[in-house]
C-alpha cells in the first residue's frame, strides 16, 4: 500500500496576507520579472520570441507581461458577458474549488475564425479532429485554489487574468478586489521540488492533490517566485516548473491555454510522460503524433528551400526540423522488432485515428501496441471492449490477467513510417550540405545497428515468450504438497502451497529471499544471482526496463553496490543509497479493472530502504540541486552556440533593486523590463 507516514496538512492563506512583506522577509522568495505589453510592440515580436525562448523555455524561469487589461474588450471579457451568454453551461470544479470550463464559444465570439494556436504551437500541426481542447476559463474567489502541479505534458503554460472584482458594488453588495497569488519554481529545480514534496511534505506532486503551506515554501531548498496576478497580467509558466495558485477577493476570471514547442516535446517524451504513466494520468496532447505531423508540416515548408541561401528564420526552422527528426528516430527505434528473430507476421492493422489509449496508464498510443484477444470486456455501444496495453506498461509488468499471448497491432504500415524517415533524412542531408559539422542522421537500419541495446518492442517480444499465459476462464487452483519425513509425526506435517499456473522453474531473490517463478526475476549474466524486480525498483531505483534492455545485465552484487544484509558485511561493497523517495501509487481505481501488476507492486514505498541508508534527505536534495544547476548551464551553453550572432550580454543594471534580473533579458529586450518602483499596485 502507499506509504503511511505523516503528511503536511492543508493550510489556507489568510485574506489579509501582505505579499510585499512576505517576499521582503523571506530569503528564498523573489518577484517574477515583469515586462509591459507595450514593449513588445516597441521591440518587435522577434525580440520577444527570443526573450521567451531564452528566459522561459530554456532558462526555465517564469515571466509576467502586464498591461493587457488596457487592450481587452471589456464588453466581452467580463462577468456580465459570461453570465448572459454561458450561465447555463456546465462547469466542473477543480481540486481547490475553482470553477473550470472550456470556453470554445467564448473564444469564437471574441475572435471569429481565429484559433488560439499561434505560430510555434505544434498542436496546430495535428489534423483538427486530433487537437486537444485546452483553452480553459477559471473562475475563482477567496479561498479557492489550484494545488501544486506541473503543466500538462511539459508544455509551456499561458495564463491571463481577464477580469476581477474591483471593490465596487455589484448586485447590491460591495465586492473585495480580486487577485491571484502564484508560488512558482524554475524548471531546473523540478527534481529537487519533487523530492522535497515526497520526502518532507509526504505528498507526490504528480498526483496534484496538495496545496503547500507558506511555511513549506519558506523552508524549501530552492528559489520560489511570487506573483500577485491582477487583471491584464499574462503569466508564462516554464515547462516542468511546479506552481500553485491561491485566489483572493470576490471574483477572479482567468483564461489559460498551453503551447507545445520542439523543446517541450523533448521534455514530454523523456520526463513528463514516464511520470504520468506511473500515476495513470491521461495524455491529452498526443505527443508522438505531434512529432509525426509536425515533421510532415515542416517538410512541406522546407521542400523548396535552397540550403546554400537560407535566411535566419529558415535556419531556425531547419534546426527545429532536425530536433523533431531526432525524436522521431527514437520513436521508430523503440518500435523496431528484433533483428535476430523472424518478423512478426500476425500484426493487426488499425488505421490511425489518435483515439487508441493504453487500458492501464491511459497514454495515447501512436503506432504499435499489444491487445488481448482473450479478455475483451462486456459489450459496449461499439461492440467489444478490447484490452490494449502500451509497450512501456507491458515491460513494467502491467497487463491484463492473461499475462501473455497478447497480439500485436499497429496503426501505420511499418513501410510508410520507415519510408518517411528516409525521405526526411534525405531532405535534412540536402539542406545541410554547406554545414558538414551538423548532426549526422544515419539510415534507420544503421541507427538500429548502432543502438547498442534492445528496443522496447524487442523487450516485449521476449517477455511475451517468457511470461506464462493464464486462462482467466478457469479458476486458479492451489496444489497442497505434503512433505512428510520418516521421523515426523502427522502433527508436524509441513505444507507447501503453490499456484497451479506457476512454472516449475523458479529462483530465490538475493534481496528479499522469496522464491519466485524465473520470469519474475532478473538474472545476472555474470554470477547467476537473481533479483526480483520489486527489490531492484525500491532498493536500487532500477526500473524493469533497465534490466531487460541490456544484452548482458550485471547485478548490484557484481557492481559492488548491493545493500542486502549479507553484502553490507563485505568491506568491498559500497551499498547503494536510493536517490529519491517513492511513496507508492495505488492505480487500481484508475486503471482498467482487468489489469494486474505482475513484476512490481508499485503501491509499495521505498521508505524502509531509505531508513536503512540513513535517510539523508538534505544530501539528496543538495545532489538534485547540483545536477539541476549543471544541466541548466549546459542547456544555456548549447543555446548560445546556436545563436553566435547574438550581441554579448552586458552586466546587470542596478535600477531593479533586490530583484535579480538576468542580464540577457536586458540585452534582448532593452527597456522593456519594469523596475519594481514602476510596478502598478
TrEMBL record:
Q: Where in the cell is it found?
A: Nucleus
**Major localization listed first in the record, in broad terms:** nucleus
Q: Which domain of life is it from?
A: Eukaryota
User: Which residue stretches belong to region Disordered?
Assistant: 88-118
Q: Where is the signal peptide?
A: none
Among Gene3D superfamilies, the record links this protein to: Cupin
Q: Record keywords: Transcription regulation included?
A: yes
Q: Where is the JmjC domain?
A: 107-276
Report what the protein is called: JmjC domain-containing protein
Q: Which organism is it from?
A: Aspergillus fumigatiaffinis
Amino acid at each position: 500500500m502507499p506509504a503511511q507516514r505523516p503528511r503536511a496538512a492543508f493550510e489556507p492563506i489568510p485574506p489579509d496576507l501582505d505579499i510585499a512583506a512576505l517576499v521582503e522577509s523571506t530569503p528564498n522568495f523573489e518577484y517574477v520579472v515583469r515586462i509591459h505589453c507595450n514593449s513588445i510592440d516597441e521591440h518587435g515580436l522577434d525580440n520577444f520570441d527570443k526573450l521567451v525562448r531564452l528566459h522561459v523555455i530554456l532558462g526555465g524561469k517564469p515571466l509576467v507581461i502586464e498591461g493587457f487589461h488596457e487592450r481587452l474588450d471589456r464588453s466581452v471579457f467580463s462577468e456580465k458577458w459570461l453570465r448572459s451568454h454561458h450561465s447555463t453551461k456546465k462547469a466542473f470544479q477543480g481540486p481547490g474549488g475553482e470553477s473550470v470550463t472550456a470556453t470554445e464559444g467564448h473564444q469564437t465570439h471574441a475572435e471569429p475564425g481565429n484559433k488560439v494556436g499561434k505560430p510555434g504551437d505544434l498542436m496546430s500541426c495535428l489534423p483538427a479532429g486530433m487537437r486537444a481542447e485546452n483553452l480553459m476559463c477559471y473562475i475563482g474567489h477567496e479561498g479557492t485554489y489550484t494545488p501544486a502541479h506541473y503543466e500538462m505534458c511539459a508544455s509551456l503554460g499561458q495564463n491571463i487574468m481577464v477580469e476581477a472584482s474591483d471593490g465596487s458594488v455589484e448586485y447590491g453588495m460591495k465586492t473585495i478586489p480580486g487577485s491571484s497569488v502564484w508560488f512558482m519554481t524554475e524548471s531546473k529545480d523540478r527534481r529537487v521540488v519533487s523530492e522535497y514534496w515526497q520526502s518532507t511534505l509526504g505528498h507526490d506532486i504528480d498526483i496534484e492533490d496538495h496545496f503547500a503551506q507558506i511555511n513549506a515554501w519558506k523552508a524549501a531548498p530552492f528559489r520560489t517566485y511570487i506573483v500577485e496576478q491582477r487583471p491584464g497580467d499574462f503569466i508564462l509558466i516554464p515547462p516542468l516548473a511546479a506552481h500553485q495558485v491561491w485566489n483572493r477577493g470576490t471574483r477572479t476570471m482567468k483564461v489559460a491555454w498551453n503551447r507545445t514547442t520542439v523543446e517541450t516535446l523533448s521534455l514530454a517524451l523523456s520526463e513528463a510522460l514516464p511520470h504520468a504513466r506511473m500515476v495513470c494520468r491521461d495524455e491529452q496532447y498526443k505527443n508522438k503524433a505531434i512529432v509525426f505531423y509536425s515533421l510532415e508540416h515542416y517538410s512541406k515548408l522546407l521542400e523548396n528551400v535552397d540550403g546554400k541561401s537560407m535566411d535566419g528564420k529558415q535556419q531556425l526552422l531547419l534546426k527545429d526540423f532536425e530536433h523533431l527528426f531526432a525524436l522521431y528516430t527514437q520513436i521508430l527505434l523503440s518500435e523496431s522488432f528484433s533483428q535476430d528473430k523472424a518478423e512478426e507476421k500476425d500484426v493487426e492493422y488499425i488505421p490511425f485515428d489518435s483515439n487508441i489509449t493504453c487500458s492501464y496508464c491511459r497514454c495515447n498510443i501512436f503506432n504499435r501496441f499489444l491487445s488481448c484477444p482473450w479478455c475483451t470486456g462486456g459489450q459496449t455501444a461499439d461492440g467489444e471492449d478490447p484490452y490494449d496495453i502500451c509497450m512501456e506498461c507491458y515491460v513494467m509488468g502491467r497487463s491484463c490477467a492473461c499475462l501473455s499471448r497478447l497480439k500485436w497491432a499497429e496503426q501505420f504500415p511499418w513501410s510508410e513510417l520507415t519510408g518517411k524517415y528516409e525521405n526526411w533524412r534525405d531532405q535534412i542531408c540536402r539542406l545541410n550540405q554547406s554545414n558538414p559539422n551538423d548532426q549526422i542522421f544515419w539510415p534507420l537500419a544503421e541507427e538500429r545497428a548502432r543502438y547498442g541495446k534492445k528496443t522496447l518492442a524487442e523487450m516485449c517480444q521476449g517477455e511475451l515468450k517468457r511470461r506464462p499465459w493464464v486462462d482467466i476462464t478457469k479458476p486458479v487452483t492451489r496444489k497442497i504438497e505434503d512433505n512428510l519425513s520418516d521421523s515426523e509425526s502427522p502433527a508436524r506435517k509441513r505444507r507447501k502451497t503453490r499456484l497451479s499456473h506457476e512454472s516449475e522453474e523458479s529462483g530465490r531473490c538475493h534481496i528479499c529471499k522469496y522464491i519466485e517463478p524465473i520470469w519474475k526475476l532478473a538474472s545476472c549474466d555474470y554470477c547467476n544471482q537473481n533479483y526480483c524486480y520489486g527489490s531492484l525498483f525500491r532498493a536500487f531505483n532500477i526500473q524493469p526496463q533497465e534490466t531487460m534492455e541490456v544484452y548482458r545485465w550485471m547485478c548490484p552484487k557484481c557492481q559492488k553496490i548491493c545493500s542486502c544484509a549479507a553484502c553490507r558485511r563485505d568491506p568491498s561493497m559500497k551499498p547503494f543509497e536510493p536517490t529519491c523517495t517513492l511513496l507508492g501509487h495505488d492505480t487500481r481505481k484508475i486503471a482498467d479493472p482487468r489489469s494486474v501488476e505482475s513484476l512490481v507492486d508499485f503501491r509499495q514505498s521505498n521508505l524502509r530502504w531509505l531508513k536503512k541508508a540513513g535517510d539523508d534527505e538534505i544530501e539528496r536534495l543538495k545532489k538534485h540541486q547540483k545536477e539541476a544547476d549543471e544541466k541548466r548551464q549546459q542547456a544555456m551553453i548549447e543555446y548560445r552556440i546556436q545563436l553566435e550572432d547574438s550581441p554579448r550580454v552586458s552586466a546587470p543594471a542596478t535600477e531593479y533593486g533586490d530583484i535579480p534580473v538576468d542580464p540577457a533579458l536586458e540585452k534582448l529586450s532593452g527597456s522593456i523590463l519594469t523596475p519594481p518602483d514602476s510596478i502598478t499596485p
